[in-house]
Amino acid sequence: MSNATPAGAADTQDTWDVIVIGGGPPGEIAAQYAIQGSDRTAVIVEQELVGGECSYWACMPSKALLRPVEVLATARHLPGVQSLVGDHSLDAGATLARRDSFAEHDDTSQVKWANGIGIDVVRGRGRLAGVRTVAVTASDGSVRTLTARLAVVLATGTTATVPDLPGLRDALPWTSRDATNVHQVPRRMAVIGGGVVACEATTWLRALGVDELTVIGSAPTLLGKNEPFAGELVLEAFRKSGVTVHLGARVDAVSRRDPQDTGEGNIHGGEIEVSFGGRSIVVDELLVAAGRTPGSRDLGLDTVGVDTSDSHGFVTVDDHLSVVGVGGDWLYGVGDLTGRALLTHMGKYQARIAGAVIAARAAGKPVDGPRTTDRADHGQVPQVTFTHPQVASVGPTEQAARDAGIDVETVEYDIASVAGAALLEDGYTGRAKLVIDRATDTLVGATFVGTDIAELLHSATVAVVGKVSMEDLWHAVPSYPTVSEVWLRLLESRG
Ligand SMILES: Cc1cc2nc3c(=O)[nH]c(=O)nc-3n(C[C@H](O)[C@H](O)[C@H](O)COP(=O)(O)OP(=O)(O)OC[C@H]3O[C@@H](n4cnc5c(N)ncnc54)[C@H](O)[C@@H]3O)c2cc1C
Ligand SMILES: NC(=O)c1ccc[n+]([C@@H]2O[C@H](COP(=O)([O-])OP(=O)(O)OC[C@H]3O[C@@H](n4cnc5c(N)ncnc54)[C@H](O)[C@@H]3O)[C@@H](O)[C@H]2O)c1
């Protein structure tokens, strides 16, 4: 940690224009956009590390772990390289070392960045204590009261949910923090969940050498928020790699011999028995990847009349990122805490808008312009799941579009038939799907599944956000021989 202003220091200021509680990427960006190009002041209140979950325990370490998995899998299917790789598995030591280099638990550079653009940092746990007022409890227990002249931004994110199942919490299971910061690779593991965290973690844990790996998901498919074929292709890949998957399964009970808090990423004690659907398995570690709990508890929301009981603890905001139900335009929410889209890039997008709204309101300007109104959270959210194959999507699935009352037409194509994909690796497996609004003849959703398709997604995002007509897409000529030629094949299949 750097020498940011310690909460409780008597000689520090207590009033800023903008106070942000939570220093993840959305909190940082909200502060930046609220003050840039002005003499306004801002402070970030952070209880742990500036940079948040994404930098140290989520996006960065997980993607650093997954990149070697992707490269090795491709090399195994690429004559000329295949023989060099042979049967070798991942070099776990080097992979973990590279992961560490991306997610060192030190926020010196982040604090330096903040201070460099005029943002102060106060260490401690922030809590609303009335209108424009934040009480900060430092690690020594001292409490300091800060006042905001203009705005308070709530950016406290989420933490891993550990369901209240018999024996589960007592077993001290791994959460995503342990999985991304894995130090000891267990021989036998079970993963509870079938969403993005479960699927990505299964991918790297298996590659790092977990010998017996069992996924237990309560939903009927993996990656249930995506098109069904995405979960099916990932399931097929898991099974091929020796992972056992049980879907539509509910864990009944967990019991662990000698649970011990041995620290993040280490095995937390003795063997664990996991009982589900009338059977039981014994593993050395258990990862819980069953969703996220918003950081709204004990945030003092009651002191300003905000009740989150109807929104599962998420803080509801409007399209200017103002907290709904709070008068005076002073309280904002960004990032995971809002429940809009639990993704770093979407949190940062919201933060750019919130910051711009705060700046506009401070200058007495209107806030109904394009940079001060959130559009993308309404059906234009892009996401890449870095499994092997990768799953990339933007906009609603066919089913979600139908549920929203859109008269949709769909078109699908086997990406393996595209020359650019066949050149990437032998035996390429992949699929693409477009969801088209018949009424406007524009693209509303797209999904690509396959090796190395992450970078393809932005083309679809631009088309969806720009409401590009399907006819105009005929004139967006993809280069030969790239995977992007799937766009042409999709258009041709549609006729
Ligand atoms: C394993 C994993 C992998 C992921 N990978 C990706 C990915 O590849 N791409 C992607 O887009 N998203 C990914 N996500 C999601 C992404 O991590 C979140 O969307 C993002 O971190 C949200 O940012 P946030 O600032 O809203 O919340 P957080 O990152 O949770 O940050 C909140 C911050 O607020 C602080 N805080 C909380 N309460 C208080 C308080 N009372 N006072 C002071 N400080 C407080 C916390 O210490 C924390 O620093 C992943 C998530 C997980 C779990
Ligand atoms: N690459 C990325 O963009 C990325 C990576 C990781 C996480 N994230 C984000 O983080 C958020 C959290 O991810 P997540 O996977 O924890 O949540 P999720 O909501 O995506 O998935 C949770 C899964 O757990 C299952 N589940 C819940 N309770 C269960 C139980 N008791 N037993 C068995 N299964 C159970 C659900 O059916 C679901 O499949 C997501 O919104 C995701 O977008 C993004």
UniProtKB/TrEMBL annotation:
Annotated S-S bridges: 54-59
Keywords, ordered alphabetically: FAD, Flavoprotein, NAD, Nucleotide-binding
UniProt-listed InterPro entries: Class-I_Pyr_Nuc-Dis_Oxidored (IPR050151), FAD/NAD-bd_sf (IPR036188), FAD/NAD-binding_dom (IPR023753), FAD/NAD-linked_Rdtase_dimer_sf (IPR016156), Pyr_nuc-diS_OxRdtase (IPR001100), Pyr_nucl-diS_OxRdtase_dimer (IPR004099)
Transmembrane annotation, as ranges: none
Domain Pyridine nucleotide-disulphide oxidoreductase dimerisation, first and last residues per copy: 381-487
Domain FAD/NAD(P)-binding: 17-346
Annotated family: Belongs to the class-I pyridine nucleotide-disulfide oxidoreductase family.
Protein name: NAD(P)/FAD-dependent oxidoreductase
